[in-house]
Amino acid sequence: IRTYKTDQSTYQLSVSDLPQGMYFVRVIKGGKTSTQKLIKK
Q: Would you state the pLDDT for residue 9?
């Protein structure tokens, strides 16, 4: 699990050090939570 905090409206997440596979990215902003699936090939 990795946690990043930013006050910017956009954030680029580096996944170059992660092996291939499926990951879930959870974004929490303004009290709302969004979870997206990320597949690295």
A: 85
